[in-house]
TrEMBL record:
InterPro entries: aa-tRNA-synth_II/BPL/LPL, Biotin_CoA_COase_ligase, BPL_C, BPL_LPL_catalytic
Domain of life: Bacteria
Record-given protein name: biotin--[biotin carboxyl-carrier protein] ligase
Keywords, in A-Z order: Biotin, Ligase
GO molecular function, one term: biotin--[biotin carboxyl-carrier protein] ligase activity
Segments forming domain BPL/LPL catalytic: 21-199
Organism listed in the record: Pseudobythopirellula maris
Recorded catalytic activity of this chain's protein: biotin + L-lysyl-[protein] + ATP = N(6)-biotinyl-L-lysyl-[protein] + AMP + diphosphate + H(+)
Enzyme Commission code: 6.3.4.15
Length: 272
């Protein structure tokens, strides 16, 4: 199926690092499609897969990702080594992807209270509501699929009742519909830059992610391997780990886990 002409033209100018693109009106999951392409090994990388509708999206830990009409859903399959990324940098690449989404969203949002922020390890929030999820999967050596599900023009009141107060779309935050092609091209342009910086051992992506951290200064609870860890968030380490100050003082770096609770109030850590 051909790509929309405007999308194709904008992509060539802003994200020339993308080698191939597949656009579909509907897919179960753009990441599943990209993973199949990686396994078949017959498509040039980086490969971009975009779907107008996604019916079986996936989040972290096997959770489903519900994408209503108007959402922007896409995945990128790439070879990390082409960006200088080793396997130990993949947690940081997750933050870099969330950062790229933040940077693409910001021109569309005027309200300072809705500045896009990163909730470790891979979510983007507008205020206290989720606008985007990111999922990284490494199906083989030197292969990575980055999946992004962004609430662009879909409405939170169309979500299941239990999710309506927890999600927000860019259109709802901006007070108008947004052009999804512009959003996509903006994310891809920022993503290419941030991944290259990570590969060059620049601290800039993590520094900027820290400036956008939703949880820094808040007491949070992280679930990891059946254990619950509570502490005061000190932001992100260089490798993408979440830094938590435990009640007895030591700061623990967590490379994986799920944030299951956090305080609404910010209590400044002793040092950041």
């Amino acid at each position: 199926m051909p790509r929309p002409p405007r999308f194709s033209n904008d992509l060539v100018g802003a994200a020339p690092w993308v080698a191939a693109c597949e656009w579909r009106e509907e897919l179960g999951s753009t990441s599943d499609y990209a993973l199949d392409a990686v396994r078949a090994n017959d498509t040039p990388l980086p490969l971009l897969v975009v779907a107008d509708r996604q019916t079986a999206g996936r989040g972290r830990a096997g959770r489903s990702w519900l994408a209503g009409d108007g959402a922007l859903t896409f995945s990128v399959a790439l070879a990390p080594s082409r960006f200088g990324l080793s396997a130990d940098k993949l947690p940081a690449a997750s933050l870099a992807t969330a950062l790229a989404v933040c940077e693409a969203l910001e021109p569309h949002l005027a309200a300072p209270a809705l500045k896009p922020r990163i909730k470790w390890p891979n979510d983007v929030y507008l205020g206290d509501r989720k606008a985007c999820g990111v999922l990284l999967e490494a199906p083989a050596a030197d292969r990575l699929v980055i999946g992004v599900g962004l609430n662009a023009n879909n409405r939170s009141d169309a979500a299941p009742p239990e999710l309506r107060d927890a999600c927000l779309s860019v259109a709802e935050a901006a007070g108008r519909e947004v052009d999804t092609a512009t959003l996509l091209v903006g994310v891809l342009a920022a993503l290419g830059q941030r991944l290259r910086q990570l590969g060059a051992d620049s601290s800039e992506p993590i520094d900027e992610a820290n400036r956008r951290s939703l949880l820094t200064g808040r007491r949070v609870t992280v679930e990891h391997g059946g254990e619950r860890v509570e502490g005061l968030c000190h932001g992100f380490a260089e490798d993408g780990a979440l830094r938590l100050e435990s009640p007895d003082g030591p700061i623990r770096a967590m490379l994986s886990g799920t944030v299951v609770a956090w305080d609404a109030a910010v209590a400044q850590p002793s040092s950041l």
